[in-house]
Amino acid sequence: MSDTPTLPAVSREWHLLSRPVGWPKPEDFALVEAPLPQPGEGQILVRNEYLSVDPYMRGRMSAAKSYVAPYELNKPMQGGAVGRIVASRAEGFAVGDHVLHFGGWREYAAVDARHTVKVDPEAAPLSTYLGVLGMTGLTAYAGLLRTASFKEGDVVFVSGAAGAVGSQVGQLARLKGASRVIGSAGSDEKVKLLLEEYGFDAAFNYKSGPVSEQLRAAAPDGIDVYFDNVGGDHLEAAIGSLNQGGRIAICGMISVYNATEPAPGPRNLARLIQTRGRIEGFLVGDHYDLQPEFVREVGPWVRSGELKYRETVVEGVENTLEAFLGVLRGDNTGKMIVKL
Ligand SMILES: NC(=O)c1ccc[n+]([C@@H]2O[C@H](COP(=O)([O-])OP(=O)(O)OC[C@H]3O[C@@H](n4cnc5c(N)ncnc54)[C@H](OP(=O)(O)O)[C@@H]3O)[C@@H](O)[C@H]2O)c1
């Protein structure tokens, strides 16, 4: 399709009005109507079709210095998005092409073409470029294989296991020869999904009892790898069950993202001495060199259905904030996506 669409005069975009303290409140945000942005030289105008809402965005709402700049107040928020080009002033980018870019949280975005990646809607559903074949998929791949130095025969434990990253970590571990894969999640339905659909060997609902006890029961011979999406009592439990030479990849700590006080650290760090254990944090942004290998290896598993994925799809730009809050609450199974 290369016909030039009729464009509206305005576009809706989300602004951050004030920096949330604790759980974000609707009053901290506004959906604002703004004149349709005009693409400058080298830019494209994209009509977004899918927006990503991700836990890391909570960090960008605070002013604290981090690896990504805080959202500016009263300016459009940003995030991953996939959309269709509706006007182009960039060579090689035609009206009708689809791109992955960072002008999310809005309907239309004018973005520098060189900061976008063309995606093919025929090769895979567009939303998957935000999830299983996108940033969260690469996070699982890099964190498990590189940071946690996964090897065949490892016993792997992953928290947030029914989420976008976690569900992929568990399945990757299984497909690459883990001897046992254990997951934790926040509801019995999610636990059932892990066992029945994703092929986990054991899974538990972390809300049903102490994580350390449930993990010990699920991994009687201990764990070699812990992929941490949650922090807090999950991390302490994992250290408590860590085997000799065990590795812990710190991907996220969603249990503390809305905390107003520093969270207490694990009380059993001394176990790392006897186990020669290693804990290492990582950021997916440092591992984009793995992208070709990731697509080559994981793409066929996704296409064949050996690696399954779920998406929770919320419709309408006006529901983007609710979708984001839903991720923090655990409303999602798999990647949370907003469809426009
Ligand atoms: N390091 C990196 O480069 C990188 C990149 C992407 C993501 N991450 C991190 O990876 C983690 C997962 O991200 P994602 O995009 O895949 O999100 P997700 O897992 O799809 O969604 C977040 C999930 O966290 C769980 N959760 C919320 N509060 C919790 C709590 N207090 N205790 C335990 N679980 C809780 C909820 O599931 P339940 O129903 O199971 O509670 C929710 O569905 C996050 O920590 C994120 O910050 C890191």
Short description:
The chain has helices at residues 56-60, 135-147, 164-175, 188-196, 211-218, 232-241, 271-275, 291-304, 320-329, and strands at 10-16, 29-35, 43-52, 81-88, 98-101, 108-112, 117-119, 155-158, 180-185, 202-205, 223-228, 242-250, 278-281, 311-315, 335-339. By secondary structure, the protein is an alpha/beta fold.
Number of helices: 9
Tally of strands: 15
Calculate the terminal CA-CA distance, rounded to whole Å. Answer: 19 Å
The molecules bound to the chains, other than polymers, are: NADP nicotinamide-adenine-dinucleotide phosphate
- The total tally of domains equals 2
InterPro entries: ADH-like_C, ADH_N_2, ER, GroES-like_sf, MDR_fam, NAD(P)-bd_dom_sf
Protein name: NADP-dependent oxidoreductase
GO molecular function, one term: oxidoreductase activity, acting on the CH-CH group of donors, NAD or NADP as acceptor
Keywords: Oxidoreductase
Describe the structure.
With 340 residues, the protein is of the alpha/beta class. It has nine helices and 15 strands. Strands 3, 4, 5, 6, 7, 14 and 15 form a seven-stranded mixed β-sheet that branches. A six-stranded parallel β-sheet has the order 10-9-8-11-12-13, with helices on both faces. The chain has a two-stranded antiparallel ribbon with strand order 1-2. The mean pLDDT is 97. The chain binds NADP nicotinamide-adenine-dinucleotide phosphate. Residues 54-56, 136, 139, 160, 162-166, 185-187, 190, 229-230, 251-252, 254-255, 282-284, 327-328, 330, 332 line the site of NADP nicotinamide-adenine-dinucleotide phosphate. The site of NADP nicotinamide-adenine-dinucleotide phosphate (NAP) has 28 residues, from α2, α3 and α9.
